[in-house]
């Protein structure tokens, strides 16, 4: 009888903790653009979901925040980056929703097209493992370089500059912290910039990019991520449902004009 009573007390305590967690604001770390903007739209559309948006600043690792319990979820990354982070942090996270694509773009303040590049042109690319590889695949897709034959799938093979086997323009690859790349546009010939940082810098990827990543079969869709123990939390479920709703998809289409592309919902 004592064991049964103890067990029932434990179940009651677990239910109480779950209820208390659901009663707390859902803390979500997000890049300011477009992620936090999308979350702010959800705050207006679904006021009963108590969201606390934690806007990320340069140098803050949102996966470390999540692993340490400082936030309940984050919304800023794609699956290849998440997998790399899981290895680096020795943690396992849970993907709660797949939301949108921010096509990687090639930009320049010095050249109007990719055909006018001089020999020895300098190209700034992201310095983190996954986005560096992504940038090299984009440069290859535009005919600027060629990677070794084994690099066929950007989702499963990570390329580095050492894997370039053809470089007809003798491009100089300069690895830079992703948030800093827009500031380098005046100093380099080309810059490969993540969609969110391009938007923050006042660029319109769909209009300003000299070359843009294809959205079709793109493995870099941005995701809502949480800890495994929160994967079934009602607040996470509600946010995931909101993020993949037709209303949010329509907001993304209208607000970003092709620079951010919803992947999870049909047009309303």
UniProtKB/TrEMBL annotation:
Q: Where in the cell is it found?
A: Membrane
Keywords linked to the UniProt accession: Lipoprotein, Membrane, Palmitate, Signal
Q: Its GO CC terms? A: membrane
Signal peptide segment: 1-23
Q: Which domain of life is it from?
A: Bacteria
> Keyword Nuclease: yes or no?
no
Presence of the UniProt keyword Amino-acid biosynthesis in the record: no
Regarding the membrane, this protein is recorded as: Lipid-anchor
Source organism of this protein record: Kluyvera genomosp. 2
Q: Which family does it belong to?
A: Belongs to the nlpA lipoprotein family.
The protein in question is named Lipoprotein
Enumerate the Pfam families for this protein: Lipoprotein_9 (PF03180)
Organism lineage string? Bacteria, Pseudomonadati, Pseudomonadota, Gammaproteobacteria, Enterobacterales
């Amino acid at each position: 009888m004592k064991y049964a009573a103890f067990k029932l007390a434990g179940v009651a305590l677990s239910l109480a903790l779950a209820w208390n967690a659901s009663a707390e604001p859902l803390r979500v770390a997000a890049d300011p653009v477009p992620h936090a903007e999308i979350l702010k739209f959800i705050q207006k559309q679904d006021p009963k979901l108590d969201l606390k948006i934690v806007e990320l600043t340069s140098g803050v690792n949102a996966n470390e925040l999540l692993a340490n319990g400082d936030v309940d979820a984050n919304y800023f990354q794609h699956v290849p980056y998440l997998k790399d982070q899981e290895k680096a942090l020795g943690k396992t996270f849970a993907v709660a929703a797949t939301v949108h694509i921010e096509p990687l773009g090639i930009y320049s303040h010095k050249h109007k097209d990719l055909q006018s590049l001089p020999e020895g042109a300098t190209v700034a690319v992201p310095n983190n493992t996954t986005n560096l590889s992504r940038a090299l695949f984009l440069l290859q897709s535009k005919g600027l370089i060629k990677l070794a034959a084994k690099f066929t799938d950007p989702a499963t093979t990570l390329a580095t500059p050492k894997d370039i086997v053809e470089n007809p323009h003798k491009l100089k690859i300069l690895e830079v912290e992703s948030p800093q790349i827009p500031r380098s546009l005046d100093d380099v010939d080309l810059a490969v910039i993540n969609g969110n940082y391009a938007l923050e810098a006042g660029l319109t990827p769909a209009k300003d990019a000299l070359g843009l990543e294809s959205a079709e079969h793109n493995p870099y869709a941005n995701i809502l991520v949480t800890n495994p123990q929160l994967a079934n939390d009602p607040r996470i479920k509600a946010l995931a449902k909101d993020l993949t709703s037709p209303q949010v998809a329509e907001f993304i289409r209208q607000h970003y004009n092709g620079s951010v592309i919803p992947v999870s919902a049909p047009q309303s």
